[in-house]
Structures are given as C-alpha cells and as structure tokens.
C-alpha cells in the first residue's frame, strides 16, 4: 500500500512539472490579450512570468524525474512549443501590432525572424555541452523589450534584427541564465539584476526620476555583463 502511494505521489509531482511548463503558454495568451488592448507594460509582465517559468521548469523536471514518472509526455517538445509561441510568435505579433520598424521593411523583418527561429528550434546542436547556446537563441521577446525600453529608432531596430538573424547561423556562444557550468553564479546575478531592473523600469519608478535612471543604468550594466559572458565564452570556448 505504501509503495503504491509513493509511486502515485511521484507521478503527480512529475505531471505537475509539465503543467507548470504549460502555464508559460497561458501567460502568452494573457500577453496577447494585453497586446490587443495596447498595454505593452502588461504584455512584458506576462512574458516576464513566462520567462521565469521557462528558466526554472528544467530544475523541477530533473528534481522530480519527469522522464521516469511521466514518460508519456516529452518535456523537451512541450517546452519548445511554449517557447516558440512566447519567444517568436508573440514578438512577431508585437511588431505587427505596435510597430518598432518602418512599414516598408516590417514584413521582411517578420519573415527573417520566423525563418531564423524555425532553424533554431530544429537545430539539434543548438545547445552545447557546456549549456551555452550555439548562435542567437531566438530570444526575440527580449529584443522587442529592448526596443521598448530604449525607444530606439526604427532603422536601428531593423539593423538589430538583421544582426540577430546573422548571429543565428554563426558559431557564437550565448549564455544560458541558469545552467552554464563556468561562472554560473555570476551569470545568475547578471540575469537577476536584469530582471529586477526591468521590473523597476516598467512598473515601479516614473520616468525621469533618480530611481528610474538608477534602474535604467543597472539594466544597461546587466546587459553588458550578459554580452560579455557570451563574448568571452566564444573566444575561450575550450576553457
């Protein structure tokens, strides 16, 4: 009797992890609703929650042994479905609905994003053994967030999309927020600073206040740290 109860609890925990992963796409749907209400702050709030789910569900999957106790569900495929919606489809919808790009090149940009993302999600070597990503990891949601926070010119946004499209196919290392083996805690601190400063910029501090500017430069600094991790790992890939 005890053994049966124990197995059932393990199965429940394992399937609960898959349910937790699925909540990411629920967040995405709420983000779509906010998008059509033209409330970009709330759009990025829901995408931020989805990003947090995506960054932590792998830990729970390993802890509760989902491949052993919930073998009928392929967590990798489930995660990819959720990520493609939140990281690719939603940013495309944001671009089409809000703008950020000149009208005459908007469609071209969307095509580039979709084609590059299909390659990324189908690439069986997209993640290296050291858990860094090989090439730009289709985090178009983060790029669109950058456009929003920086209020960057449309032509600069287009150049950024072209650059990320090119980096998708190049042997460039991109840092994973949690699972990298080298300098893991520095990576976690950098991404934590990025997340907290983003939250402050969008929801806590008003524009042009001292705390807003402190949060803004903390956000810039965190982005620099994250880029440095990727550049250093690309140069010293055998380290």
Explain what the structure shows.
The chain has 239 residues and is mainly alpha-helical. The chain folds into 2 domains: 2-174, Four Helix Bundle (Hemerythrin (Met), subunit A); 175-239. 75% of the residues lie in helices and 2% in strands. It has 9 helices and 2 strands, in the order αααααβααβαα. Helix 1 (2-36) runs antiparallel to helix 2. The radius of gyration is 19 Å and the shape is globular. The N and C termini lie far apart (51 Å). 29% of the residues are buried. The model has no long low-confidence stretch (mean pLDDT 89).
DSSP strand count: 2
Overall SS class: mainly alpha
Rg on CA atoms, Å:
19 Å
The CATH class of the largest domain turns out to be Mainly Alpha
Which features would summarize this protein structure in a list?
9 helices; Four Helix Bundle (Hemerythrin (Met), subunit A); 239 residues; mainly alpha; 2 strands
Which helices and strands appear, and what pairs or packs with what?
Layout lengths: L1 H35 L3 H24 L2 H4 L5 H24 L4 H20 L10 E2 L5 H11 L3 H15 L4 E2 L9 H21 L5 H26 L4
TL;DR of this structure?
The protein has 239 residues and is mainly α. The chain is built from nine helices and two strands, in the order αααααβααβαα. Strands 1-2 form a two-stranded antiparallel ribbon.
